[in-house]
């Protein structure tokens, strides 16, 4: 076996997501991938607490990331900024002027690919909250060790890697020529997959990699992010089916 | 979509709560002294342990972590045990991330009194090298969802996490006085030395219209709002009262207080038994997983360190099994729109998944195939109305593994098909 847990280099750990796990939050999601477990909750759209946050063009988005113990470390600021940026890009801003949207992500247990889990959980929590979205922001992490790529690395693999890349796609957005395209970073339709303009929304990479390896890492991350997006779609389809079964539509 | 106010309007249910109580019922139909359903999920790592507690709608997570530090000079034999309680911004719309509100500080102080100041844990047993190195335990409690009775939830979660925590074994070199902490896989860690185990029982005191004061156990949010005071006991299973927390708001008679203490003793014993069962199961589960992990990895590997040497060769045996085989990536549709081809495709996918499972077993027993690098990740199948049959069952032996990632000549990785040979 190539990796400690017996996975192939291009295999993701099986993810699992549970929506609506918290009662007080408007939307919440518990996302697990291997040993990484993350709980995300969303409040909003709500009246902003401070009038300086009122913005007539759209919601004021704030995301807070905490470790499982509630302690805040400096490294979480970057993740908070990325998640807030991704949220601003996917929420249909025009529908929520002068409101505040606040998301909180608790990393209950981190075992690699925490940024991806946080983003996936936050996206699903936004859907659970009923916020109108242009598409789903789903991401994945790829680590490079030597010239081998490891998708969805564990914490040990991330620590040993010489470089890693986190990439999030805006999945499922129709071909729109509006603000969403401006918010997206990177090549539009760079995956070259044809139907559906899956665009790169967030990308963060670190480490020492030459150009070829960086390109390969990006491509691998795009495929992995698509798998994550597939998973999100599966989760939402199942939830919709469950809701339709539980609340039969009234006819007439 | 309606706008949510940042402030809840909890007073709406007050009259309803009072009328239920006058009939001896709670809002959710339980008895006055009945508790909501309790479940605890445990987690343990190399240097920390956690317990996630669900009490009705309240969700609280407690994590205990230990590290070696220097003791106070006037107490060279004592370790440290500190608590911190935070109300996460998830817990309620009014909670802000940042400084804990007064309620959180009150709960933290209560937990310190009931656990640390009642000598539940022998702090002297946390000493490693007298005057130089002691264990400092830190217990962080986070309220993820505020459904009422946070005091009980936080303190029971903290106590459960402390019982699940295992202190790593240490090696003290007598000559150099250097302390090495052993990983749990090297030497079995030991549970914390507990003198007794206090559990917290909270009553809400509600004055009915006729002036009678009723005490209800495990109040939920609506009841907390209508209550004029709360009364909390912390007892162990020997019916010893470790802490009494009665912050006022309502005057009660001596008889009521003693009655409530009696009830609390029974409830604390029930809590003890429930948490104990959970702890035993969690311990067995953790040990089983540890054995499984140790059995799989080589004897010289410690913990979850990855064997880096093998990675460069890539995965030869399973390289042709990509996402589609081991993960569901097909497009899901509603039942009505399913075409026969899609049904066949789904059946084929399931079949190939089964074959993949068989193959994984076979490969685990068979000797490894020649190293040939790992293949590129499989792209998601194109979302056409009739998906291409990407994962057909293979009647022949598996096709050869794909080119390595390092190989630049094959540039069309995106279009590689599973059934090409």
What does this protein structure show overall?
Chain A: Belongs to the RNase PH family. Chain A: InterPro entries: ExoRNase_PH_dom1, ExoRNase_PH_dom2_sf, PNPase/RNase_PH_dom_sf, Ribosomal_Su5_D2-typ_SF, RNase_PH. Chain A: It holds the Pfam family RNase_PH. Chain A: One of its GO terms (cellular component) is nuclear exosome (RNase complex). Chain A: It comes from Phaeomonas parva. The complex is a heterodimer of chains A (252) and B (421). Chain A has 5 helices and 9 strands. In chain A, the strands form 2 sheets. In chain A, strands 1-2-3-5-4 form a 5-stranded mixed beta sheet, with helices on one face. Chain A has a 4-stranded antiparallel beta sheet with strand order 7-6-8-9, sandwiched between helices. Chain A has 252 residues and is of the alpha+beta class. Chain A has one domain: Ribosomal Protein S5, domain 2 (2-Layer Sandwich), CATH 3.30.230.70. The longest helix of chain A is centred in the last third of the chain and has 36 residues, at 211-246. In chain A, strand 6 (136-145) and strand 7 (148-151) form a beta hairpin. In chain B, helix 2 packs across helix 3 and helix 3 (150-164) runs parallel beside helix 5. Chain B has helices spanning 14-22, 102-116, 150-164, 221-226, 254-296, 308-311, 323-326, 340-365; strands spanning 38-44, 48-55, 58-69, 80-87, 127-129, 133-145, 166-167, 170-173, 178-181, 190-191, 199-207, 213-217, 229-235, 241-245. Chain B is of the alpha+beta class. Chain B is 29% helix and 21% strand. Chain B has a domain at 3-291: Ribosomal Protein S5, domain 2 (2-Layer Sandwich). In chain B, strands 1, 2, 3, 4, 5 and 6 form a 6-stranded mixed beta sheet that branches. A 4-stranded antiparallel beta sheet of chain B has the order 12-11-13-14. In chain B, strand 2 (48-55) and strand 3 (58-69) form a beta hairpin.
């Amino acid at each position: 076996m190539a990796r400690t847990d017996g996975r192939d280099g291009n295999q993701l750990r099986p993810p699992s997501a549970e929506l609506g796990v918290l009662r007080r939050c408007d939307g919440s999601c518990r996302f697990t991938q291997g040993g990484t477990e993350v709980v995300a909750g969303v409040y909003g759209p709500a009246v902003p607490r401070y009038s300086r946050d009122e913005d007539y063009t759209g919601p004021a988005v704030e995301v807070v990331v905490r470790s499982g113990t509630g302690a805040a470390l400096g490294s979480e600021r970057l993740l908070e900024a990325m998640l807030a940026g991704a949220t601003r890009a996917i929420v249909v801003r025009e529908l929520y002027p002068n409101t505040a949207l606040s998301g909180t992500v608790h990393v209950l247990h981190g075992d690699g690919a925490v940024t991806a889990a946080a983003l996936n959980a936050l996206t699903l929590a936004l859907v659970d909250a009923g916020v109108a979205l242009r598409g789903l922001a789903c991401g994945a992490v790829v680590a490079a060790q030597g010239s081998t790529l490891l998708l969805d690395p564990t914490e040990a693999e991330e620590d040993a890697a010489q470089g890693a890349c986190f990439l999030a796609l805006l999945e499922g957005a129709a071909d729109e020529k509006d603000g969403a395209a401006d918010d997206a970073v990177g090549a539009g339709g760079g995956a070259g997959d044809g139907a559906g303009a899956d665009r790169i929304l967030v990308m963060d990479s670190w480490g020492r990699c030459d150009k070829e390896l960086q390109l390969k890492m990006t491509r691998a991350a795009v495929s992995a992010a698509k798998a994550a997006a597939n998973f999100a779609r599966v989760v939402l389809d199942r939830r919709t089916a469950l809701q339709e079964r539980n609340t039969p539509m009234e006819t007439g | 979509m309606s706008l949510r106010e940042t402030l809840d309007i909890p007073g709406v249910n007050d009259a309803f709560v009072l009328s239920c109580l006058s009939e001896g019922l709670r809002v959710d139909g339980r008895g006055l002294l009945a508790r909501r359903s309790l479940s605890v999920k445990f987690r343990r790592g190399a240097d920390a342990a956690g317990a996630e507690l669900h009490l009705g709608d309240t969700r609280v997570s407690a994590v205990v972590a230990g590290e070696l530090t220097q003791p106070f000079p006037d107490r060279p034999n004592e370790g440290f045990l500190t608590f911190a309680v935070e109300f996460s911004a998830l817990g309620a719309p009014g909670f802000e991330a940042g400084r804990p509100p007064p309620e959180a500080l009150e709960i933290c102080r209560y937990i310190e009194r009931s656990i640390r100041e009642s000598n539940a844990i022998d702090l002297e047993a946390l000493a490693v090298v007298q005057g130089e190195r002691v264990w400092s335990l830190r217990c962080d409690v986070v309220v993820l969802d505020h459904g009422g009775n946070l005091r009980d939830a936080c303190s029971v979660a903290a106590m459960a996490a402390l019982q699940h925590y295992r202190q790593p074994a240490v090696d003290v070199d007598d000559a150099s006085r250097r302390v090495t902490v052993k990983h749990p896989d090297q030497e079995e860690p030991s549970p914390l030395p507990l003198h007794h185990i206090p559990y917290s029982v909270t009553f809400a005191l509600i004055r009915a219209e006729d002036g009678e004061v009723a005490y209800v156990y495990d109040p939920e949010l609506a009841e907390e709002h209508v209550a004029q005071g709360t009364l909390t006991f912390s007892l162990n299973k020997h019916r010893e009262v470790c802490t009494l927390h009665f912050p006022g708001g309502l005057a009660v008679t001596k008889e009521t207080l003693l009655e409530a203490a009696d009830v609390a003793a029974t409830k604390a014993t029930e809590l003890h038994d429930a948490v104990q069962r959970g702890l035993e199961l969690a311990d067995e589960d953790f040990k089983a997983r540890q054995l499984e992990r140790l059995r799989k990895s080589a004897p010289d590997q410690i913990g979850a360190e990855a064997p880096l040497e093998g990675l460069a060769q890539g995965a030869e045996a399973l390289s042709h099994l990509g996402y589609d085989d081991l993960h569901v990536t097909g497009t899901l549709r509603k039942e009505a729109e399913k075409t026969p081809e899609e049904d066949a495709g789904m059946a084929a996918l399931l079949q190939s998944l089964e074959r993949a499972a068989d193959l994984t077993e076979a490969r685990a027993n068979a000797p490894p195939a020649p190293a040939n690098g790992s293949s590129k990740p499989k792209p998601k199948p194109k979302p056409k109305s009739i998906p291409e049959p990407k994962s057909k069952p293979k009647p022949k032996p598996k096709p050869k593994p794909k080119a390595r990632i390092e190989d630049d000549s094959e540039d069309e990785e995106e279009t590689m098909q599973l059934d090409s040979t």
